[in-house]
Fold:
Amino acid sequence: MTGTDLIALKPTGTPLDAAERELRLAEPGFGRFFTDHMVTITWDAGQGWHDAQLVPYAPLSMDPAVMVLHYGQAIFEGLKAYRQPDGGIATFRPEENARRFQRSARRLAMPELPEELFLASLQALISQDQDWVPSGAEKSLYLRPLMFSTEVGLGVRPSSSYLYVLIASPAGAYFPRGLKPVTVWLSEEYSRAAPGGTGEAKCAGNYAASLVAQAQAADQGCDQVVWLDAGEHRWVEEMGGMNLYFVRGSGDTASIVTPTLTGSLLAGVTRDSLLTLAGDLGYVASADRISVDDWRDGNASGEITEVFACGTAAVITPVGAVKSASHEWTIGDGETGPVTARLRKALLDIQTGAAPDMHGWVHPLTVTI
Ligand code: COI
Structure:
């Protein structure tokens, strides 16, 4: 099955000039530039999914009473396409994003996009805009699938129509400071998610609700917010929009542990991949509950040697220091630790084709046009 079997191709006659594109690929930043095309697929109660098409990237026009602007049925995904050593292009575990997109849709009472259509949309857009996939360290094409409600009306109920859109944006390092360790603020005032809430879904509202805590972190001189559980503000959950890992010990006997998925955490694809990859590198990897006290005490005793956050956009980001209303501590020497650096390189090597893919994670693109 190829993207073009399912998606009608209606490309632009006026793509961006190649020299201008190369300028953008040289310094892409994150989410600043977009490729020449997008894919849209429509759903309505009568027809289900229909009208799948690749069209020129363009603004969408909306009625001000469209339900998404009022009640927020909006979900998204994030994944990357990497240039491979032979010049080809591959994505990383895209079927995991397809499945999570379906889970997010279910939680927000939205229709599920079939995995086949999700993958076909990626295939069609990357094939069409393949010249937009940069090469070079830390560079990729970030793919952003999203879906939102499109029915016009103010009644509070699930919309009877939706639009799926896939856009793509060349990306460099996610954090402007590159790979320098981040300083985190433990938020005891705000919660990202509560039991029974939407924490497990990748929905727009979770990110909207995070912004005031992120601003508070910045006021405290920190780069990122760390979320604790909503009930006790005791158990560590996530950092900003990323999962967390704690490294215990060092060298060959190091182990890594990530907070257990309780329903209020996002099940990150990078988080999941690292549970396996760490084992390949000889580290014991597990999921467990970790309290703020465990973190502070483990850091003081030297048991916790490194901490890092992980996600698609930034891959792995070291955490160098922690601050809360009552405490402050530095992790190790505050610099990127060896286990963090080794895992980061091992994962990126698989994604970029520099190391063999032992787990069938790399999904090469079959160019069809
Ligand atoms: C990721 O790490 O991929 C994220 O989800 C962050 C994104 C919202 C930019």
Q: What stands out?
A: The first helix runs from residue 3 to 6.
